[in-house]
Amino acid sequence: MQAERQDETGRVALVTGAARRLGAAMAMRLAADGFRVAVHHRGSPEAVAETVAKIQGAGGTAMAVRADLEDIAAMDAMLASIRHAFGAAPEVLVNNASVFEWDDLASVTSEALLRHYRTNTVAAVLLTRRVTAAPPASGAGVIVNLLDQKLLAPNPDHLSYTLSKYALLGFTELMARALAPHWRVCGIAPGYTLPAPEAPPGHFERTRDDTPLRRGPTPEDVADTLSYIVSNRAVTGQVFAVDGGAFMAPASRDYSFR
Q1: C-alpha distance from residue 43 to each of 1, 52, 53, 80, 120 (Å)
Q2: Residue 215 and residue 159 in contact, taking contact as beta carbons nearer than 8 Å
Q3: Which residues make beta-bridge pairs with 12?
Q4: Which is catalytic among the residues 54, 117, 150, 165?
Q5: What average pLDDT does this structure show over 98-114?
Q6: Are 160 and 116 in contact (CB under 8 A)?
Q7: Max CA-CA distance within the chain?
C-alpha cells in the first residue's frame, strides 16, 4: 500500500523491518513526534498494513514500502518511492531490519555468517550510503542503528548474529565521525524486550526482569530512546543500552538458555 503524494512539511523518516515488534513501535513513535514515516517490510503485507493503519488512526502520516534489502535495485526503488510520495528524502534512517538465528562455533557455517551479514550489516551500510549521499534539507539528519545489549556483555550464543552486530557497532562509530556535521549517528542496544518466537510459554515473563533494575525494557522504552536521539542535536557516536542494566550483570549464556 502506497501513500498519495503529501503536502505536509514534517520531516521524513524510514524505519526498516518495521511491520511489527520493535520496528513498529519505533515507527509509531516517530509518527507521533511529527515525522512522515516510511514503514519498511520485506514480506509482511498484513502486519505492515496494520502498523500503517495505527499511525494514520492516531493522526500521523505513514506509507508502507516493500523491499528485499539484499537487492540493490529494490533498495533504490524503495527510496525513489518515498521521495515521490512524500516529496522529500528521509532525514532519519533507523536500520532495524535483522536476521536472528542461533548458532555457535561448533555449528556456524559460511552460509549462516553471510546471511546475517547481508541483512544486519551490508544492507545497513549500503542504505546509509544512499540516504546520506546529500546533506539533509534541515541540516540535521540522523542515522540510528539497532544493535544488541549482548555486545556490551558478550556470550558465545548466536555467533553469526553477534558478529554481524559487532560490525554494525563499528560502522556506527566510524560514520559518526565521517558524516558529521550534517548527519548524527548513534546506536540503540536493547536487552530482552520481546519474547523470541521459539521461546517456551512463560520463559519471557520469568527472565525479562532478571536485571539490576528488576525491570526489563519494553518496546516503548526503546522507542523513547529513539525519540531522544533524534531530538537531541548534541548527541552523536553514542550507543544507548536499554536493558535495565543487564550489561552490568553479564551471563555466560543468552537469555533463551536461562
Answers
A1: 12, 15, 17, 19, 17
A2: no
A3: 36
A4: 165
A5: 97
A6: yes
A7: 55
**Helix (H) or strand (E) segment spanning residue 146:** strand 141-146
Nearest 5°: the CA angle 243, 225, 250 is: 15
**Known catalytic residue at 161:** yes
Q: Could you give the CA distance from residue 225 to residue 96 in angstroms, rounded to a whole number? A: 14
Distance CA 153, CA 192 (A): 13
pLDDT at 1 over 80: no
The span from the CA of 36 to the CA of 185, in Å, is 20
- For residues 97-110, average pLDDT: 96
Task: State pLDDT tens for residues 228-248.
Answer: 999 999 999 999 999 999 999
Architecture of the domain delimited by 12-257: 3-Layer(aba) Sandwich (3.40)
Q: Given the residues 117, 150, 161, 255, select the one marked as catalytic.
A: 161
- According to the model, what pLDDT value does residue 122 have? 98
**Active site includes 165?**
yes
Instruction: Specify the amino acid at residue 94.
Output: V
Domain extent listing, the chain: 12-257
